[in-house]
Automatic annotation (TrEMBL):
This is Uncharacterized protein YqeY. SUPFAM superfamilies: GatB/YqeY motif. InterPro entries: Asn/Gln_tRNA_amidoTrase-B-like (IPR003789), GatB_Yqey_C_2 (IPR023168), YqeY/Aim41 (IPR019004), YqeY/Aim41_N (IPR042184). It comes from Ammoniphilus resinae.
Length: 147
């Protein structure tokens, strides 16, 4: 079953369960998928849907930080709840130790010698962790581990 089909089934179940939060998040994701399909003129692949889900999750993370800075705990809690719904549709996120190991292996594979090789390392690394790790965390770890 594709991710879009799973979202549709879960949306129907959320309607039956009267789960307003889950329903609104799924509707928003499905709307984003539909808009992207219209823009591209074709159906999205599973990888493209995952990328879209990651983009939505990143938006929630950014909003959460802003809400916490502003002291808006009510909105921060809403963002956390929406993030939980989105995380259910993404592959299991890698732990920081797992990311560090993958980064170290990739640095050795591409023969990176300094921070100048950051682009080369990130280019080889991102396909390995796409959808499984936050890009900003991966970038920070790469910068720490590069001499």
């Amino acid at each position: 079953m594709s991710l879009v089909e799973t979202l549709t089934g879960d949306m129907k179940q959320a309607m039956k369960d009267k789960d307003k939060l889950k329903l609104s998040v799924i509707r928003m994701v499905k709307s984003s998928i539909k808009n992207e399909e219209i823009n591209q003129g074709k159906e999205l692949s599973e990888d493209q849907v995952l990328a879209l889900l990651n983009r939505e999750l990143k938006q929630r993370r950014d909003s959460l930080q802003e809400f916490e800075k502003a002291g808006r705990e009510d909105l921060a809690e809403q963002s956390r709840a929406e993030m939980e719904v989105l995380l259910a549709y993404l592959p299991k996120q890698l732990e920081e130790s797992e990311i560090r190991q993958i980064v170290q292996e990739t640095i050795e594979q591409v023969g990176a010698a300094s921070k100048k090789d950051l682009g080369k390392v990130m280019g080889a690394l991102m396909p390995k962790v796409r959808g499984k790790a936050d890009g900003s965390l991966v970038n920070r770890i790469v910068q720490e581990l590069l001499p």
